[in-house]
Amino acid sequence: MGVITDNLGLYADGLLGTLEICGLVAVAALLLGIFLAGFRVSPVPPLRAVGTVYVTLVRNCPLTIVLFVFAFGLPEVGINGAYITFGVAGLTVYTAAFVCEAVRSGIGAVDAGQAEAARAIGLTFSQSLRLVVLPQALWAVLPPLGSVAIAMIKNSAILGAFGVGGELYSVANTLNSARGEPALPVYTGVVIGYLIIIIPAGLLLLMMEKRLKATR
Amino acid sequence: MNRVCYRLSLTEGLNVTKSTRGEPLIVLEGVEKFFGGFQALHAINLTVFSGEVVVVIGPSGSGKSTLCRCINRLETIDAGQIMIDGERLPEEGRALARLRAEVGMVFQSFNLFAHKTALENVTLGPTKVKGIPRETAERRGRELLDRVGVGAKASSYPAQLSGGQQQRVAIARALAMDPKVILFDEPTSALDPEYIAEVLDVMAGLARDGMTMVVVTHEMGFARRAADRVVFMADGRILEEGTPEVFFGSPGTQRARDFLARVLTH
After folding, report:
1. What is the pTM of this model?
2. What is the ipTM of this complex?
3. Would you tell me which of B35, B111, B115, B144 could form a disulfide with A117, CB atoms 3.0–4.6 Å apart?
4. Which residues of B touch A123 (CB under 8 A)?
């Protein structure tokens, strides 16, 4: 285990890198996912189609292929950028499909009378979604969104495998391949890093759920 | 003018005396509604005049709630047309939202916004639909909550209120939009018996103040007390309409006599 204590700085940097990537993806995927969920329940058929096609395509595609499209497909058509940008964008696009489905199930769980009452006072569809249905739906889907978030944090390791440097998983590459350290202790350190992020995140979610129950 | 004549001829012989108080506000012509293969409404013709209180009664499944929900297009119709204040009910989009803002609705299950306080429930429409400044909307919201007797509960959430209080907040929410008409879809059917009177009292007060109302209900006492006109429906058809005195005193159809015998003797 000496390799972990000897390289604490490297691990800490990786942890921060992963936190940064996941923070960005969490915000972006949440917003994109909510938009897509709005599309999927829209009364306008073309918007519904866009939402359905997106989810069907992206959710059923392995993340590695989504990232491959971003990392190597976009430069082919002349869109260039840093690996980290493509990585964050790819993971966002992928995660948003899952957020969308979680939020959509939440929208379905909100009593239909809420939307009817909203429409009855003259709110437009988007207003009733934004002001009445979504605020209630998001609280209801906090647990599944938590699962999506945890999956997303672990999925961010694949960015490291794609050569996005400075995040937790790439620390293992550096130590294994470049310095020839033994794999098992190195990866143990990586796992500890992910647990340091994910366990507090899970506790935070639990706290939010409890507070929600108390206010209802 | 045509429509007025049409309606008068429709109700001629039904001894309608009190109903023609103002201009026609809601006009339904030949409205049909299907749920799959089931026809819920058959060629409904109905005119509600400004300032009039029309109470719709009838057995369960007679289409009275569907009729009520069609008037602000919570249900689409399959044939016929509905005019609100001379304007044909738009099919969707902003025009429909604008028209709905002028037609209040009170639901059987209250449907107060669960994540908002009583006051926020009442101010949401005025601020977001009409663009009224928050302070103005809140002042008026508190007045309305006072008027329906729940002023002290302004900052309570719906789950903290009794059914009767929730329904009164829902009435205040409808009033806050200054609607031309309020539709009541069985407003007391989900209430515990001890709360029914307080809601009916508020509704009777509105009727006295001249609010145009369409009320679907099983409360025969309210129909007698507050209605200008009683509409009796069965099997998706309007079978009779008339003043409460005439309808309850000498119903014209066997269906109505059977229905009244059942509901008035239990």
Report:
1. 0.84
2. 0.86
3. B111
4. 97, 124-125, 128-129
